[in-house]
Design a protein that fits this description.
Blueprint lengths: L29 H8 L1 H21 L17 H6 L3 H32 L6 H13 L2 H11 L5 H8 L16 H26 L3 H9 L4 H12 L1 H16 L3 H6 L11 H11 L3 H31 L1
Helix pairs in contact: 2-14, 4-8, 4-11, 5-8, 8-11, 9-10, 11-14, 13-14
Amino acid sequence: MTTRQSSPPSSTQTPIPPKKSTRRRHYIPKTRISRLWALPALIPVALLRYIAVGFGAYYAFTNWNGLSVSADFVGMDNFVRIFSDEVALRSIFNTLILAACAVLISNTLGMILANALNRDLKTRHFLRALFFAPFAITSLAVAYVWSFIFEYNGLLNQFLSAIGLGEWRRLWTADPETALWTILVVMVWQTTGLCMIIYLSGLQGIPEEINEASELDGAGVFKRFRYVTLPMLRPAIVVAVALPTIMSLRVFDQVIGLTNGGPAQVTETLVTQFYRQAFAFGNYGYGAAIALLLTVLIGIIAVAQVLLLRGKDEN
């Protein structure tokens, strides 16, 4: 019995493909790559802002003078000193009263101007730029300009004399009864344009058909504003209230340019007190405590405003 020999494999036979590697390849998601591109911007921000704030918060619990290598931990002594110091308490009151009045008045005037200029007027663009211009000017320069207006021989007193109210003439920035209100006037004059622009952008986003339909239903001007315009301006109101609040709580340039905290420290604010204690008197730990208190105050008020206004809209 003959055995059949197997033939050698032909050269034309299909080769066996190599085995695939079982090792997994690591792919970086696109979202992770996009985050890496943000690192060059995030690193300087973290170094210059967040880390600096962290060190400032630490020094608020020390007696560091800004020059020595070491600082002693004093706990809550700096904060106890703030609430037992008459000047510090007055600065807290001044900061809150200036912020409250400035936000209320600037938002009211900004809303009025926005509704007045949200019309087909030939000069509307010029008027919008004119009212917004004070906000674009440096606050310190604005304060110096208004300091000349409030002088005894300034424009304000000259105007009062011209209309027969010469007995009202005074040095407005040096009078303890009026010095704080001169700062408020400058703050309102500068932030009203910002509120106007924010409300204008909100008004232009309201469809005209809604106003026309409410007018056909018999709603008057005030009813349309109360029940149609105002509810639809809720997002703009949140921004127009939050931004001036933060700016007003940090008021500094207007105080330095108009009164420099005087007369007799009656116009001191939290920021001016921080500046004097930390950089003029060398009480850096005490000044850092004032700055930390202001930071917490701004955070609480800003978050409360946003939650309150958004809460009404969501409910």
